[in-house]
UniProtKB/TrEMBL annotation:
<dbReference type="InterPro" id="IPR000626">
    <property type="entry name" value="Ubiquitin-like_dom"/>
</dbReference>
<feature type="domain" description="Ubiquitin-like">
    <location>
        <begin position="327"/>
        <end position="408"/>
    </location>
</feature>
<dbReference type="Pfam" id="PF14560">
    <property type="entry name" value="Ubiquitin_2"/>
</dbReference>
<dbReference type="InterPro" id="IPR044079">
    <property type="entry name" value="Ubl_TBCE"/>
</dbReference>
<dbReference type="InterPro" id="IPR029071">
    <property type="entry name" value="Ubiquitin-like_domsf"/>
</dbReference>
<protein>
    <submittedName>
        <fullName>Uncharacterized protein TCIL3000_3_1630</fullName>
    </submittedName>
</protein>
<dbReference type="InterPro" id="IPR032675">
    <property type="entry name" value="LRR_dom_sf"/>
</dbReference>
Amino acid sequence: MQEVSLMARCLPVLTVLQLSHSPDLFRHTAKQIQHKQLLSAPNLRKLVLNHVGVRSIWQMRAVVLLPMLEELHLDNNGIERLVLFADDEKVAYQAFQQSRKTSDNTDSERCEWFPKVNTLSLAQNELSSWGSDSGLEEVITEAFPGLKRLFLTGNRMPNLSIGTDSSNITEDFKSDLASLDYAYLRPLELLCVNENITLTDTCTLDAVRILCPHLTTFRITYSTMFPQWNETLGRMYVVASLPTVTTLNRGQVRAKERLDSEIFYIQRGMAARQQKEQGQETGNAPQGTLHYPLLDVLREKHKDVITVIYREGETASHDGTMHMMLNVTLRCDGFEETKKRVPSSMTVGKLKALVRAVYSVAPSDQQLSFMSGDKGVVEPPTKLDNELQSLSFYGMCDGAVIFVLDTSLRR
């Protein structure tokens, strides 16, 4: 690490430095760390130490002073537990602290760490716990008190659960949670947990919503948590589950997308609730269904938008007794656009019958897909490829554009 200070001395305006794939960078032991070795890189703001064999946070701080450091990357270092001190470094730290107080007669407790660091990347390591076993709480609160952005991409983070019904959580309970092993999560504005194949339960999203009240940017891998859905539906569930998030997986969450996602969440939640009630009556409760803890909150929020219709004697609806009316646009090459108002519970099969009435295209010759209709978003069309499923199953929203491809013209 002395090389960092030497480079900073030769390059006084240096603000970003990467020293990756250097296994000998931390070859010194605690006994070799002496106060006289402390050098400084006063202008360095970003330091990348990927795959360098770092064992502790003190290894960096004991050799070089980085008073302005804002961003630190410790990717791919095989870290199973983040620690302040490794082996006998605690003794060296105490000696170092005492020598500083003796030399300048000041209390420099906070100066020994990285108070200005707001971004920490621990991607591609071996972390497997959110609590004390990972060391995140101890290290982040002590060494990085100003942390706002945490990258945990490509680790083995488990599902995070608060262990109670989130709909009944009080502010006092939230404070108690934050004061235990998860205080480091509360200030976060960005959290990346994508490529963690062990994150498989939506309870994690519920916990993130409660433990990270200031979160605005979030990254997650949809396919591990929603293997039964495509990415569009997975994204809609996550958007609805995290009300404060404005950027999800590098994509901006627009107002229309949030509205559509919350309506989708309500529809799926009502269907799941109805299925659960029916299962309890018959003694065959569904297993492994998704959770919808914000269902009642979002229903109240959108009570003026949603139309509830109780059907009798009809079994065509696959999304419960509840649906809303959608204003959609039909587009077919060679024909003028047609606007229709249809229920979200309409099946794709019935939609094909409607298309046949409008464009005289046989259902067997139709390939249907749709887009949200939001001109500010670039998105691939979602295929409507199951005639038994409803429009709400595919997350179709108000204002959607339905594309009709007449395959008979290709024969």
